[in-house]
Write a structure and sequence with these properties.
Order of helices and strands: HEHEHHEEEHEHHEHEHHHHEEHHEEEEEE
CATH topology of the largest domain: Inosine-uridine Nucleoside N-ribohydrolase, Chain A
Number of strands: 16
CATH architecture of the largest domain: Alpha-Beta Complex
Shape: globular
Radius of gyration: 23 Å
Number of domains: 2
Strand content: 15-25%
Structural class: alpha/beta
Length: 476
Amino acid sequence: MNKNTLFLLLLLFAASFSGHSADKFRVVILTDQTHDDGNSLIRYLYYSHLFDTEAIIVTPQLPDYTFNDPGPWKKAQGIIEAYKKEYHQLKKHQNDLITPDQLLAVTKKGRGALPIIWLTNAGKFSAEIAGRKVETSWGEIKFEDWIGEGLNPNGESKDSEGSEFLQQIFAKDDDRPIYVQAWGGSITLVQALYRFKQKQGDEKFGKLLDKLHVFGILLQDITFDYFIKLDDVKTHGCLNMGDTKSTYHGERFNPGWLLLDEGHFWKYIKVMSQKEINGHGPMSAIYDHGGEGDTPAFLYLISAALGLNDPADPTQGSWGTMFKKMEGPFPDQYFSTCKVDVNELMRWVPDAKNSFLNRLQWSLKQPSEVNHEPVASIGKDRSNQIIRRKVKPGKTIRLDASKSTDPDGNQLSYNWFFYQSASSYAGIILPEGDKSPVLKLKVPDDLGNSNIHLILEVRDNGTPSLVSYRRIILAK
């Protein structure tokens, strides 16, 4: 048995004990392929083994692109073609990455274009976007002109290849959540939901809504009015809405939950530089200077796979930031970044950045030549699941991570910390032995009905250094 074969067997052995769920995250991406979307898609494809990518809907969006501009579609197809060129190399590292044929099959044309939300009633735009001079104009924008029956103001059917395809996805007999990432316009999604309700009836429509987990990078366009009253969001006060007004007057329908990043993502645009990315194969060659503003919409799923967070609880904090329940006239399952410190996104940047820089090495090197994430264990539990532990105030608990391992044989370091902003306990906790694999912690006498979130980071000394996490939630 040669060295490479032995190494791969060791990786498989480690993975068999990692506890990672066989169920992947069902994902639908809505993208306008504007200046930063292409870069986010490139990063996403390096992690595509974590996802059942059900659909990628390319919808042109103003002011960047007019409805008949071929630019967004060509850009998406160019990324897919680059992925195809290096797929067999990437597959050496992760056998179940999405195949190029699968990627082509789920990438569909949506309908557009509507202006980005804060420009809805501006009527025109003239400025530079990512080094490109853009001059566009449009007329009055009303919800009913774009969703429903008949033609839109561009003379096109309101239905599209993308909306028809989404209806097929929604009709699948699959109870897993559908993580909808709104990098771009929601128009094609809303038209698909309109048709689904019309064709499938209220009962099936209600079950579908419960499964939809929508992550909005902003609200993108006025069709978000279908889910949330735009006038109320404007009053909410954290999102630039310009002079946009609600124009939808029907019943609003609430997805299982809605996450609204009202501005944290702007910081992410400058996290990765083009210089760092270029030079790692065909996809990296088309990574440009536009940044990655939409990447947080899937980062929280990646960090969930690494054990940091439960993707069903956006208040826990993750690589994709932390969300809090929206105040005011909003459903309980609606969350936003309003009044959340942007550090809840930026604190994880070094780990997320190292992870991507390491994945880029897949395009150039063999599996035995790159680093791999350690496996963080609590006792014999080697899974990525959140640990919930009942405790008694005043008692001392002991958590043992000494059975954590690294598939490359790298040296491990440990860091335990009290994640105060994710906890309801208002006091200060200083874990004892926070750099040791074994943690001892005295439960506060005044714990009451509060909870305490502890995070374990298990980090290797590879190049670049990689990390896995465990979250332990303590409560009475």
